[in-house]
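Project outcomes to date are best conveyed with an example. Our students and postdoctoral researchers have been running inverse folding experiments weekly, and each run begins with a structure described purely in C-alpha cells. The record below, which covers 636 residues, was selected by the lab manager from last quarter's runs and is presented without edits.
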C-alpha cells in the first residue's frame, strides 16, 4: 500500500461535498505512485468518490467517513489508462486497475499540441494555400473527437480529427470562413498527422460573421432598465453545498463529466430524488461531406461538461440577488483549478401560481409563483449550454437546457445545393444536427422501493360504457422489466411516465407519485446501421428504466471516446432485470433537432429543451395554498 501526506475531511461538511483544490492535488500525488506510468502522466478526471447510498442516507453530522477520490491516470506515451481510488483520509491507494483499450475524455493540453502539429504539416499547409490562404497564422483549427468507424490505420490509436477556419483578424468569427473539405487526423500519442483529407476546393466564404459590440455598431435606445431587488435578501440559504428554500432542501456539486449534479432532493423532509444530472449527451451531424459525416460529439463523455464550465457574471448570466459557488477541476497535470462563480443561485418571479375570481361573492384570490434557480453554463467548442434546475412552490421540479453560441458551418460552392444543411449567409451553410441529452434521475419517492407506469390519454371508444363517444382517460401500463421500460415519447397521447411508491398511500388511497413529463422528446435520427447508433444507443429511446446500481453511471459507458459501442444502457438492460417496487433509475433522453435558420447566425438566440417532474398524488391537495397573498403587488 502506498501513502502520501495525510489529508483529513475537516475542511468539508458532508460526504457528498466536492473535492477541494488541495484534495485534487493530494489525490493526484498519491495516484501517481500506484501506476506503472512514466513521465508523460496526465489526469483527465479527478472527482470525489461518492459513498454508497445507504451510508450517505445514514450519515449524521459528527459522524466520520473515509473520504475518497477517483483518479484517472493516463500515460500518453503508451495510451494506458488506470482507474485509481485514493483515500484522502489516510493518504493511501485503495485500489488501482488498468482499463485496457479505454480512451478517456480528450485533454485540453493535447488538443493544443494537435493544433501545432497540424499547422506544421506540409500536406495541410499546401491544402490551405490551394484555398487562397497564405497566412497560416490566420487559420483557426478545431480538434474534434474522432469517433470510431473502423477505418484502416486508426485501430488502437488515440485520435483527433481537426477542421479549419480562417480568422482574417484575431477577433473575427472563424466559423464564417470554413476551409471546407479539409480534415487532418492526428495521433495524440505521437502527435503525428497520419492523414490529411482534401475532398476538393470550395470557395472560402468572404462575408464576416462578427457579433461583438464593435461589429454591431449602434444599439437600440428604447430599452428601459429592469431592476430585480430583494431588499431583505433572498429567501434561500446556502450552507456549504446544501441549499434550503421554502420546503425544499438539496445538495449540489460540479462533476467534471456531468457538470451540475443535484443530490438528496427533499420537500418538507420527504425524499424525491437521490441524485440527478446530465449523464451524457451527443451531437450527431447529418451532413455527409468530408468535413462533417464523422461529427458525433459526446460533449459530456468526450470533453466533460464540468471541465468546460464557465465563470458567471452578475447582470449578464444571472440577474437579481445572486449567490455564487466556485467549482474545482483538475488541471490535467496534477493540480486543482478553481473556477470562480461557476454555480449561480437566485429566485425568479414566475407569474401566477394560482388564481380564482368567485363570480358569486366577488372574492378574488391570487398567488404569485416563484422559483429557485440553480444554474451553470458550459462552453463546448462553438456551443454554449446553460443548465437550469428550477424548484417551484407547488413541488414541481424542472430542468431547462438553454442552447446558444455559434453553429458549425460549411462552405458552399456558388449555385450548389448544400448537403443536408441550410444556407445562412452567402456561400455559407449550417449542417443539420441534433443535441441529445440524457438525464440520469435516481428517483426515491418517500423511499427507494418505487415502480414506473406509462400513462397515455386515450379515447374510450364508443361502447356501452361510453354511449356518447365523448369519454377519454388515462391508459396506465406498468413497466415491469428493463425491456418493457425502453420507451418513446408520444406527444399526441400526452404520454408521461409516473413513478410511484406503492408502500406510501395518500389520504385518497392512492400511492404517492411524480410524473416525468417530456418537454422536448427528440431521439437519434441516424439510420440503425450507422456507427453512431452503436455508440449512442441510449439516444434511440426517450426513456429507459434500470434498477439502481452504483456502477451504472453513464448511458453510453464510462469511456465513449472512440468506443466500439454497445456499452452502458444496452449492455446493462440485456439482463432484462425487474424494475417493480425496487430502487429505480430513470434515464430520459430529450433534446433539439436543429434545422438552422438564417436568424441563428452569426450567434444563436437561445433554444430551449428540458422536462418536468410534477407531483401526482405526492400531496393530498395543492401544497401551495399557504403561499401568502402578494399584497405589495396587488394595490388598487
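After processing, the design step wrote out the following sequence:
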Amino acid at each position: 500500500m502506498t501513502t502520501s501526506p495525510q489529508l483529513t475531511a475537516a475542511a468539508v461538511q458532508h460526504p457528498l461535498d466536492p473535492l477541494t483544490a488541495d484534495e485534487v492535488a493530494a489525490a493526484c500525488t498519491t495516484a501517481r505512485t500506484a501506476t506503472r506510468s512514466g513521465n508523460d502522466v496526465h489526469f483527465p478526471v479527478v472527482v470525489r468518490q461518492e459513498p454508497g447510498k445507504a451510508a450517505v442516507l445514514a450519515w449524521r453530522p459528527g459522524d466520520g467517513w473515509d473520504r475518497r477520490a477517483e483518479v484517472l491516470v493516463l500515460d500518453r506515451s503508451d495510451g494506458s489508462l488506470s482507474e485509481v481510488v485514493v483515500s484522502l483520509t489516510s493518504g493511501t491507494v485503495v485500489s488501482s486497475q488498468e482499463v485496457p483499450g479505454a480512451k478517456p475524455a480528450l485533454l485540453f493540453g493535447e488538443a493544443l499540441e494537435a493544433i501545432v502539429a497540424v499547422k506544421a504539416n506540409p500536406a495541410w499547409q499546401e491544402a490551405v494555400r490551394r484555398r487562397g490562404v497564405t497566412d497560416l497564422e490566420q487559420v483557426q483549427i478545431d480538434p474534434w473527437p474522432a469517433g470510431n468507424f473502423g477505418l484502416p490505420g486508426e485501430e488502437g490509436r488515440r485520435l483527433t480529427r481537426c477542421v479549419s477556419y480562417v480568422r482574417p483578424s484575431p477577433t473575427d468569427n472563424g466559423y464564417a470562413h470554413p476551409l471546407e473539405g479539409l480534415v487532418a487526423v492526428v495521433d495524440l500519442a505521437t502527435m503525428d498527422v497520419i492523414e490529411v483529407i482534401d475532398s476538393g476546393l470550395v470557395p472560402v466564404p468572404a462575408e464576416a460573421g462578427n457579433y461583438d459590440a464593435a461589429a454591431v455598431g449602434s444599439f437600440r435606445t428604447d430599452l428601459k432598465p429592469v431592476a430585480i431587488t430583494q431588499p431583505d435578501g433572498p429567501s434561500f440559504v446556502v450552507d456549504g453545498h446544501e441549499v434550503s428554500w421554502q420546503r425544499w432542501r438539496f445538495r449540489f456539486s460540479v462533476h467534471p463529466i456531468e457538470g451540475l449534479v443535484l443530490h438528496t432532493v427533499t420537500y418538507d423532509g420527504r425524499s424525491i430524488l437521490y441524485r440527478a444530472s446530465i449523464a451524457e449527451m451527443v451531437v450527431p451531424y447529418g451532413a455527409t461531406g468530408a468535413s462533417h459525416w464523422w461529427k458525433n460529439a459526446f460533449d459530456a463523455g468526450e470533453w466533460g461538461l464540468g471541465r468546460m464550465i464557465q465563470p458567471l457574471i452578475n447582470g449578464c448570466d444571472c440577474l437579481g440577488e445572486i449567490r455564487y459557488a466556485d467549482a474545482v477541476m483538475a488541471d490535467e497535470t496534477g493540480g486543482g483549478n478553481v473556477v470562480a462563480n461557476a454555480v449561480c443561485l437566485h429566485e425568479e418571479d414566475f407569474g401566477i401560481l394560482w388564481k380564482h375570481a368567485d363570480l358569486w361573492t366577488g372574492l378574488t384570490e391570487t398567488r404569485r409563483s416563484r422559483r429557485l434557480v440553480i444554474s451553470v453554463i458550459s462552453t463546448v467548442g462553438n456551443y454554449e449550454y446553460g443548465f437550469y434546475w428550477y424548484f417551484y412552490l407547488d413541488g414541481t421540479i424542472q430542468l431547462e437546457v438553454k442552447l446558444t453560441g455559434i453553429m458549425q458551418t460549411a462552405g458552399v460552392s456558388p449555385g450548389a445545393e448544400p448537403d443536408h444543411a441550410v444556407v445562412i449567409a452567402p456561400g455559407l451553410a449550417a449542417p443539420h444536427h441534433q443535441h441529445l441529452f440524457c438525464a440520469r434521475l435516481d428517483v426515491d419517492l418517500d423511499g427507494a422501493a418505487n415502480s414506473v407506469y406509462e400513462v397515455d390519454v386515450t379515447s374510450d371508444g364508443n361502447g356501452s360504457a361510453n354511449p356518447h363517444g365523448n369519454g377519454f382517460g388515462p391508459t396506465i401500463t406498468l413497466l415491469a422489466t428493463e425491456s418493457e421500460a425502453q420507451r418513446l415519447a408520444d406527444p399526441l397521447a400526452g404520454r408521461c411516465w409516473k413513478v410511484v411508491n406503492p408502500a406510501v398511500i395518500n389520504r385518497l388511497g392512492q400511492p404517492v407519485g411524480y410524473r416525468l413529463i417530456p418537454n422536448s422528446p427528440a431521439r437519434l435520427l441516424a439510420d440503425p446501421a450507422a456507427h453512431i447508433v452503436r455508440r449512442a444507443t441510449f439516444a434511440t429511446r426517450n426513456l429507459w428504466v434500470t434498477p439502481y446500481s452504483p456502477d451504472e453511471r453513464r448511458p453510453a459507458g464510462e469511456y465513449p471516446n472512440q468506443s466500439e459501442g454497445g456499452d452502458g444502457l444496452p449492455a446493462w438492460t440485456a439482463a432484462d432485470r425487474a424494475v417493480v417496487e425496487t430502487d429505480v433509475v430513470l434515464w430520459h433522453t430529450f433534446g433539439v433537432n436543429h434545422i438552422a435558420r438564417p436568424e441563428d447566425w452569426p450567434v444563436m438566440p437561445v433554444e430551449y429543451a428540458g422536462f418536468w417532474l410534477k407531483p401526482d398524488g405526492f400531496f393530498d391537495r395543492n401544497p401551495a395554498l399557504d403561499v401568502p397573498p402578494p399584497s405589495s403587488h396587488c394595490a388598487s
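The first strand starts at residue 41 and ends at 42. The longest helix spans residues 21-32. The training component of this project remains on track.
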